[in-house]
């Protein structure tokens, strides 16, 4: 059994990373890196939803299905569910940093919006 990881542990680790802000997503606490969601808590506050990639997700579930799992809702999305009661603090830190990197990369790959002049009738 892993040592006790709580939402406060998640919050402390998430807020220690650069350009992270706390907010909500679907009514639960969430964290964004440069505006991109990378962690949110599930409604039970004992499960965390974490951004990942499909290959890493499959590997984590195969390695420790007690800690990592999916629901049908997340099957086609690059997210994984994590039971806080089953994850070790050092693994949590690595997992959150990986999610932060993915979110930061996603933000960097998006082109900045350009402002357009409003269309109007010319006189």
Question: Would you give an account of this structure?
Answer:
This protein is of the alpha+beta class. It has one domain (7-109): Aspartate Aminotransferase, domain 1. It is 33% helix and 24% strand. It has a 6-stranded antiparallel β-sheet. Strand 3 and strand 4 (47-51) form a beta hairpin. The protein is globular and about 30 Å long. Mean pLDDT is 88; it is low at 113-123.
Describe the secondary structure blueprint for this structure.
Layout: H1 7-15, E1 20-25, E2 28-33, E3 36-41, E4 47-51, H2 54-63, E5 68-69, E6 79-83, H3 89-109
Antiparallel strand pairs: 1-2, 2-3, 3-4, 4-6, 5-6
Helix pairs in contact: 1-3
Keywords:
33% helix; 6-stranded antiparallel beta sheet; 3 helices; Aspartate Aminotransferase, domain 1; 6 strands; 123 residues; disordered C terminus; alpha+beta; globular
